[in-house]
Amino acid sequence: MQVWQINLIILWVTQFCASAGFALSMPFAPYYIQTLGVTDLDAVKLWATLAAAGAPLSMAIMAPIWGLLSDRFGRKPMLLRATCGASIIIGSMAFSPNVLIFVLLRIIQGMFSGVASAAVTLVACNTPEKRQGFALGCLSSSLFSGNMFGLFIGGFLAEMIGYQNTFLLSGALLMVSSILVLFGVQEKFTPAAKPASRVSWREKWAALGPGTPLLLLVIWMSVGRRMDGAILPIFVQELHGQLDGAAIWSGLISGAGSVGAVLVGLCGSVIMDRYRPVVLARWIATGAALGMIGAGLVQSLEFLLPLRFAYMFFAAGFDPVLNTWLSKITPTNRKGAIFGLAQMAKSCGMTIGPGIGGIIARVIATRAVFWVSAVIFLLFIPLMLRCDRVMTAKSRDAEAAE
After folding, report:
1. How many CB atoms lie within 10 A of CB 199?
2. Which of 88, 122, 135, 325 has the fewest CB atoms within 10 Å, i.e. is most exposed?
């Protein structure tokens, strides 16, 4: 087997462990907040929104720095930093004395985390171009299958051993992931040569390649996908009618969504290199919008299960499609920087999305969050077509200049 294939297998396992570690505890943060003394449901929505938006905000600030360091020192060190940092900080959340400390730890987690982005960068830089769609699709399936496993057992663990112990178990799984990376992943890294003269910011931006308009799509996609991030567990609690048992239902529903995400990751690994990203993304956005409309109309938890599956079957395809698109049009020695910026863009969307969702839930209704998200997915299609035309024009200009 070639090195990239061995790395892909090991990274699949490590990302499964890391994703499972996150999913064991973080989706149940609104319930944990209520055990820290916050009982008013409107106040819970506020703190849950701050917790959901705080980590992506700090991640957005740090992601470009980690991306530049990745191009300078290698991708493996950045993946180790992310997994170790997440392990220590999430484990520390078990000892939060109040909700303020918990939210602060979430913000710190965003500064040092970014596990998925680091893994995507490593795979993109060490996989032959003709196999990148396959590799990134496989990696996506590991993230969502780990998420599915974590969500499925996380709800039961939260009820059986408590939220604090679940955070400790999450930290342990992430530490296992970092150990696997340390001893299993191989990387032959050659840093890019330093320019002989000072380079302007305009030249640095141009050197990233013609794919920079895709960063706008990453932000837009993240806003739509994360708008219900802090609200879904509360929506489940509202439909269930009480806090007791809500974590189990939340885990089952989120797990059903992860099953759909795993399937689209596996399907994507087969078709990603065969069809243009713009074609795949159009169908993904349409399906995700329909799934969100259905969620906003649902009246029982039993119907929310298949709807969440259907929604995630489409929505989970955004990441591998955009990552593959971005990787194929970005120079190899700039992929660390471009994926760092992509993580920043994604984190910005992950900050804006829950913030908008929290405001809509408090001012209008929880269900309105799903309908607004559906509109964002539908508007993604014309925005994507516009970006595709801009990138095509930039590529033609670059070829003419040569």
Report:
1. 12
2. 88
Alpha-helical (H) ranges within 185-317 are 201-207, 214-226, 232-240, 246-271, 277-297, 301-315
- Rounded distance between C-alpha atoms, residue 218 and residue 116, angstroms: 15
Whether residue 228 contacts residue 373, with contact meaning beta carbons closer than 8 Å, is answered with yes
Q: Provide the whole-model pTM.
A: 0.66
Distances (CA, A) of 198 to 177, 195, 202, 203, 334: 39, 7, 12, 10, 17
Q: Give the pLDDT score at 202.
A: 66
Query: What's the CATH code, domain 3-186+210-401?
Result: 1.20.1250.20
Quick: pLDDT tens for 23-35. Answer: 777 767 788 888 8
Q: What is the tens place of the pLDDT at every residue in 111-137?
A: 887 777 778 778 877 788 777 777 877
Determine the 3-state secondary structure of 4 from DSSP: helix
Tell me how far apart the alpha carbons of residues 93 and 163 are, in angstroms, rounded to a whole number: 10
Return the sign of the alpha-carbon dihedral for residues 60, 18, 240, 304: positive
